[in-house]
Design brief:
11% strand; three-stranded antiparallel sheet; alpha+beta
């Protein structure tokens, strides 16, 4: 198995120790040169250098061959060990440092043969070839020596792997932290955008509420005051009564404006929709002199307050437009309860228009209905009045 990576600090340390042991072996051979023939000394030095350099072909920075390195040591280091032991009565244990490197490079794919060969087979062969006259304790010492250095290399490998995993985990944690930080910034920006959109929507809602409430109230008051101007000379008592009624209408309109500012539905929010619409139509008819016929179709059931409020505003705006712009004298209102929707239809006999101009009031109605997945239709023709139709999906609220 080939690994292309730089050396770890531990591998550089093993390289220094291995090089140091080879230098000591060379120094030993040079010091005892006078005891042997020059040819033997030369062969010894060449064998040491060969056993040192050949394995480096397979274990160097950016190229590590975990299979070939143990084979190179097996072919060069062990013969050197046997040769030195044969030349000298005391064995030169030059194989110990390569054993640490082999233990360091051992993995699950090559452990099945490197461990038995270098920890058992090599000491046994070394013992029987050169030390057959010694006892079993000597053999046990050779095996223990090989196991010790092999285990040191294996332990160093475990330490390096543990450090690598820790570094990877740390890098992953840092990456996750940066990702979370970026997502948090994105969420903050999104929250700021939502806040701005909410503020804009709330301003629009307040504008719609005030437009519908104030417009409806002032239309009623203006029409009532026009009637009072005719009655004030002909029938002062009736004019006074009418003025008292308009005063109450103005107070009610002011209260409704205040409730809108405080994001509240009309005070009659717990009443059925037909009752609220009837009351609204009757008041408008009373103060403007408009004939309004109100009809409820279908079995009435309670609906969400937001749906109820949208239909109320739709009627308010339609009545106001019918009187102010269409100069209508009569209006027909039909409230219909279906299986899955509630609709209201307002038809007046005003002057109408060939091309209907969409103003703030109709836009406000459209936004309300769209928010509830409803449908708003406005049609008008010159001399034929205007028809406003509003349908909103609705479900029965459970009764408790």
């Amino acid at each position: 198995m080939v690994q292309r990576r730089p050396w770890h600090g531990v591998e550089w340390s093993l390289f220094i120790v291995l090089t140091g042991s080879v230098l000591l072996s060379l120094l030993y051979a040079l010091v005892h040169m006078h005891e042997y023939e020059h040819r033997s000394t030369f062969l010894t030095i060449m064998a040491i250098l060969l056993s040192y350099s050949v394995p480096f072909l397979f274990w160097r920075p950016n190229y590590i061959q975990t299979v070939c390195y143990p084979i190179a040591v097996l072919l060069t280091g062990i013969p050197l060990q046997i040769y030195l032991s044969w030349m000298q009565q005391d064995a030169y244990l030059t194989i110990n440092c390569p054993l640490m490197v082999i233990g360091f490079l051992t993995d699950r794919k090559n452990a099945w043969w490197t461990a038995p060969i270098f920890m058992v087979a090599m000491p046994v062969a070394y013992y029987f070839i050169l030390h057959s006259g010694m006892g079993v304790g000597e053999l046990f010492g050779f095996i223990l020596n090989a196991v010790l250095f092999f285990a040191i290399g294996l332990s160093l490998q475990r330490v390096v792997n543990s450090n690598e995993k820790t570094e990877k985990l740390l890098a992953e944690n840092q990456r996750q932290y940066m990702l979370i930080h970026e997502q948090n910034n994105a969420l903050e920006q999104y929250a700021n955008q939502i806040e701005q959109l909410t503020l804009v929507e709330e301003r629009n809602r307040m504008a719609r509420e005030l437009h519908d409430t104030v417009g409806h109230t002032f239309t009623s008051v203006i029409m009532g005051m026009d009637a009072i101007s005719y009655l004030i000379e002909a029938s002062p008592e009736k004019a006074k009564e009418k003025l008292d009624v308009l005063r109450n209408v103005t107070r009610n309109g002011l209260e409704e404006v205040r409730r809108s500012i405080h994001q509240m539905v009309p005070q009659e929010g717990d009443m059925l929709l037909s009752q609220q619409l009837t009351r609204l139509a009757n008041e408008f008819a009373l103060h403007t002199g408009t004939q309004i016929r109100f009809t409820t179709v279908g079995e009435e059931f309670d609906i969400p307050k937001q749906t109820k409020l949208s239909l109320i505003r739709c009627l308010q705006e339609s009545l106001t437009n019918a009187k102010r712009h269409g100069r209508a004298s009569s209006v027909e209102v039909v409230l219909t309860y279906g299986d899955d929707q509630v609709s209201i239809r307002i038809e007046d006999d005003g002057v109408g228009a060939e091309q209907l101009k969409v103003g703030f009031g109709i836009n406000a109605m459209q936004e309300r209905i769209d928010a509830l997945q409803g449908v708003l239709q406005v049609s008008s023709a010159a001399g034929q009045g205007t028809i406003v139709s509003c349908s909103i999906p609705a479900r029965r609220l459970p009764s408790f």
